[in-house]
Amino acid sequence: MNKKESFSKHINEGYFCKGESIIIGGGILDNEPISNTHVKIPLKTLNRHGLIAGATGTGKTKTIQVLSEQLSQAGIPVLMMDIKGDFSGIAKEGEEKSFITERHAKINLPYTISKFPVELLTLSEQNGVRLRATVSEFGPVLFSRILDLNDTQAGVISIIFKYCDDNKMPLLDLKDIKKVINYITEEGKEEITESYGKISTSTTGTILRKIIELEQQGAELFFGEKSFEIDDLMRIDETGKGYINIIRLTDIQDKPKLFSTFMLSLMSEIYQQMPEQGDSGRPELVIFIDEAHLIFKEASKALLDQIETIVKLIRSKGIGIYFITQNPMDVPSGILAQLGLKIQHALRAFTANDRKAIKQTADNYPSSEFYNTSEVLTSLGIGEALVTALNEKGTPTPLVATMLRAPMSRMNVLTESEIQDINNKSKLVKKYSELIDRESAYELLNKKIAEIEKQIEQKSQKEEETKVTTRKASDGPSTTEVVGKSVLKVLTSATFIRGFFGVLSKVMKK
After folding, report:
1. Of 46, 218, 289, 503, which sits most exposed with the smallest number of CB within 10 A?
2. pLDDT of residue 253
3. 486 Cβ partners below 8 Å, 6+ apart?
4. pLDDT digit string, tens, across residues 355-386
5. 226 preceded by cis ω (within 30°)?
6. Contact 94/410 with Cβ under 8 angstroms?
7. With contact defined as beta carbons under 8 Å apart, do 221 and 127 qualify?
8. Section 320-338 average pLDDT
9. What is the mean pLDDT of residues 66-74?
């Protein structure tokens, strides 16, 4: 048996599938595609997560497109985080060109053009399906970790949530929780101390600053109602294709805190709401996170621990998560160890640090009798990648340099008119377009503060009227002197009250 025959036998046995699978390309040996050596990924292992890595311009986006198409065609919905805005073309048919036909002939795969059902989602003011969640849905633990609070500060957040639950005050958006913080620091300080314990104003001040920082990254658009329902990510169209849900994130590249906030809340909600699947034979949803380093770049250790925990647990719910980044080292080792499928595009060795990173990357892959992994990593062409996955038994497949199949859909972005057309036809855009601002903690506390202020003023006026009446009935100072002292007392009292509530002190300066 010659080397090619040995290689073909090795790969076909390693990637053999009895059950449902997707084919992502064909094997390469000595820079030559080997016909009928197909790289198959079993559907039942696609909830084991994965990594797609490689230098800029090596074909990562097209690889995501191919995977998304294959999943959709198999009736599996996809959620795609589109940071660069170059993924929307999957909604339109591709164009058969000679270089694509030649590529598929080399790996002996037929090529057809196709389009796929798409929903365009947004976290910002872009057109699309609006994604929102309430502060209450986050809960105190997750909200504290997003703000990177210490134990003392996180304890105060827990008290705030408990106080709002006890008093039936919904925490819907950021203005709600900011109002509660101001209230427990000022007007409601005694009430909170009596029922929940003393809270330091320096602690609440720190928390408030952290919330404002999050707000400045655009989080006020995300927190609120109507909350997005995760069932709307799981839709199948009338032809049996899974919907590809594209979250357009082109305008939040410089807002990593907002990106991390959304991703963690989404994964947490999916984990909490989805039933246990076990080995169901196919995933319920596959999530692709482009530019994944943005999640980890400014995340605290507590936040990273939370993400790692969810990545470990969520696969039992039938959810696969795939991280896309330039270098595998961008992904924390604890998460990297959880990834079953690895698709590694070319890396560039321009500096000593680059060469070190390539060696570290090569060490993360299984050894192969057919490849020098470090050398292959720098010689792969566009649309080629080193691949290793999990077979149906859950054991790693052989490492194989792969010529990836071409996308069936458009390899370019949609025009503005095409985007508008998708949104106009979308049932979800209509469902989530309305911004609801029902009565919540902000409005309820404003009413409570107004009532407290009214009671204090009424009490003050009654006391002054009693004192004036008493002085008039007794021998003592002249009428002018009594009136002068009464006015002084009223002013003193009013200064205290309005200083406390921040209103009357401005009136008195006029």
Report:
1. 503
2. 64
3. 464, 467, 468
4. 888 888 888 888 889 999 999 999 999 999 99
5. yes
6. yes
7. no
8. 88
9. 97
CA-wise closest residue to 90 among 78, 102, 76, 107: 78
What span, in angstroms and rounded, lies between the C-alpha atoms of 233 and 319?
Answer: 12
Amino acid at 289: I
Q: How does pLDDT run across 466-484, given as a tens digit for each residue? A: 776 766 666 555 544 444 4
Measured distance CA(128)–CA(120) in Å, rounded: 5
Structure tokens at 411: 């390899």
Q: In this structure, what are the phi and psi dihedrals at residue 117, rounded to the nearest 5 degrees?
A: -65, 130
Where do we find the tokens 């230098």?
A: 55
Residues 24, 39 contacting (CB under 8 angstroms): yes
Cβ–Cβ < 8 Å for 328, 171: no
Residue type, 473: A
CB neighbours of 353 closer than 8 A, spacing ≥ 6?
none
Residues 51/331, Cβ–Cβ less than 8 Å: yes
What single-letter amino acid sits at 445? L
Return the H-helix or E-strand segment holding 374.
Answer: helix 373-379
Q: CA gyration radius for the chain?
A: 31
CA distance 272 to 216: 29
Structure tokens at 25: 């390309």
Could you tell me which residues are beta bridge partners of residue 322? 50, 288
Q: What is the pTM of this model?
A: 0.81
Q: Which residues, 6+ apart, have CB-to-CB distance to 125 below 8 Å?
A: 221
AA letter at 478: S
Look at the block and give the residue holding tokens 């311009």. Answer: 57
Query: Six-digit token pair at 29?
Result: 């040996």
Question: Assign residue 342 a region: left if phi > 0, alpha if psi is -120 to 50, beta otherwise?
Answer: beta
**Range list of H helices, 54-173:** 60-73, 98-106, 135-147, 151-166
User: Does residue 28 contact residue 352 with C-beta atoms inside 8 Å?
Assistant: no
Alpha carbons 52 and 38: distance in angstroms, whole number: 19
Query: Could you tell me which residue, 33 or 501, shows the higher pLDDT?
Result: 33
For 315, the token pair is: 């696969």
Pairing state between β 129-130 and 118-122: parallel
Alpha helix segments (H runs only) across 148-230: 151-166, 174-185, 189-196, 201-216
Q: What is the mean pLDDT of residues 83-93?
A: 89
The pLDDT of residue 293 is above 60: yes
d(CA 250, CA 320): 23
Alpha-carbon distance values, 415 to 114, 174, 226, 420, 421 (Å) = 18, 35, 28, 9, 10
Judge contact between 339 and 323, C-beta under 8 A: yes
Is-contact 354 380, C-beta < 8 A?
A: no
Entry field: residues in the chain: 510
- Give the C-alpha separation, 69 to 248, whole Å: 18
